[in-house]
Amino acid sequence: MNTPMQLKTGTLFVVATPVGNLEDITFRAVRVLKEVDLIAAEDTRHTARLLSHYNIKNSVISCHEHNELQRLDLFLEKLSQGQSIALVSDAGTPTISDPGYQLVKKVARQGFRVVPVPGPSAAIAGLSVSGLPSDSFLFMGFLHRKKGRRQSALEGIKNEKATLIFYESPRRIIILLEELMAILGDRPAMVAREITKIHEEFLRGTLSQIIEILKSRPSVKGECAIFVAWEPPEPVAVPTGRDMDHIISQALADSDESPARIAKHLSRKLNCPRKEIYQRLITLKRN
C-alpha cells in the first residue's frame, strides 16, 4: 500500500483575482494576499493596482510565461524555509490559460502544500449566462495562432457533444468565428466580451448571426470568450429505388475509378452500406 506523501511546511496559494470588476474578489483572497510572505504575479504592475485598491502592502515578484521555469528554484527555496507564496495572474484563476502550471506541478511534486483560493473565471462566468447546455463543457482556451494547427484542433472536436469554450483576442475573433462555422456548422453560440467590465456585452445567436453583428462594427475591442453548443447534424435522407440507381449510374458515367472505390465514395456520401451500393452498381454495370 502506498503511504501518503509527507507534506512540507511551505504553502503555495493559487489565488483567483477579478477578471475586470475589482469587487469580484473574496474576503479570503484579500486576507491571503495580505498574510503570505511573497506574491508571485503575472504582471507586477497590473497586480499593484489590485493591491493598492485593497490597501495590501506586500512583496511582489514577477512570474510569467517567459520566466516561470527560472523562478522555480527561488520559490522552492522559500517554501522549504516555511514561507508562503500566493500565485496570481492578471485576471481570473491562475493556470487556466494563464501561467503557473509548471510552478504548481513542481511544488506539488516536491511535497509542499498547494491550496486553491477559488474565485472568478471568465469561462465559468460566461457559461453561466450563455443559455447553452452547461452540464458538459470542453474548455479549449486560446487556440494556436497558425491557421493549420488551429483548424486541425477544430476538426478533432467537431463531434464533441459538450459545449465548447474558447478565448480569443478582439483582433482575431471574427477569423475564429468563421473557422468555427466552416468546420462545426452554424451552431447556437454566444460571444462574451469584456466580462464584468463597464462595456460588458453578451452576443447570443447562431455563429453566422454573431459574425454579421461583429462585421458591422468598425472594430471589436476587449478580450472575448466564445461558447458554442453541440448541435446534431440533420439526418440525411437515404435515396432508394430508382433515385439510388440514378445516382449510381451517374457516378459510373462520371468516374474512371473501380466499382469498389465508387461504392466506397457513395457509401460515405449517402450514408448507406457499401455492400448494398456495390451490388446495385454491379447489376447496373452489367445491364
In summary, what is this structure?
The chain has 287 residues and is an alpha/beta fold. It has 11 helices and 10 strands. The chain is elongated, with a radius of gyration of 27 Å.
Keywords:
about 20% strand, cytoplasm, Methyltransferase, Cobalt-precorrin-4 Transmethylase, Domain 2, 3 domains, 10 strands, single chain, elongated, methyltransferase, S-adenosyl-L-methionine, Cobalt-precorrin-4 Transmethylase, domain 1, 5-stranded parallel β-sheet, about 40% helix, 5-stranded mixed β-sheet, about 290 residues, 11 helices, EC 2.1.1.198, alpha/beta
Task: Write structural notes for this entry.
This protein is α/β, with parallel strands linked by helices and 287 residues long. It has three domains: 110 residues, Cobalt-precorrin-4 Transmethylase, domain 1 (3-Layer(aba) Sandwich); 106 residues, Methyltransferase, Cobalt-precorrin-4 Transmethylase, Domain 2, CATH 3.30.950; 46 residues. The strands form two sheets. Strands 3-2-4-1-5 form a five-stranded parallel sheet, sandwiched between helices. A five-stranded mixed sheet has the order 6-7-10-8-9, with helices on both faces. It is found in: Cytoplasm.
- Please, what is the average pLDDT? 91
CATH architecture of the largest domain: 3-Layer(aba) Sandwich
What is the SS-derived class? alpha/beta
Distance between the termini: 73 Å
Number of strands: 10
User: What is the molecular shape?
Assistant: elongated
Per CATH, the class of the largest domain reads: Alpha Beta
Q: How large is the radius of gyration?
A: 27 Å
Biggest sheet: strand arrangement: 3-2-4-1-5
Largest sheet geometry = 5 strands, parallel
Number of helical segments with 4 or more residues = 11
Helix content: 40-55%
Q: Quote the CATH topology of the largest domain.
A: Cobalt-precorrin-4 Transmethylase, domain 1
User: Element order, helices and strands?
Assistant: EHEHEHEHEHEHEHEEHEHHH
The CATH superfamily label of the largest domain reads Tetrapyrrole methylase, N-terminal domain
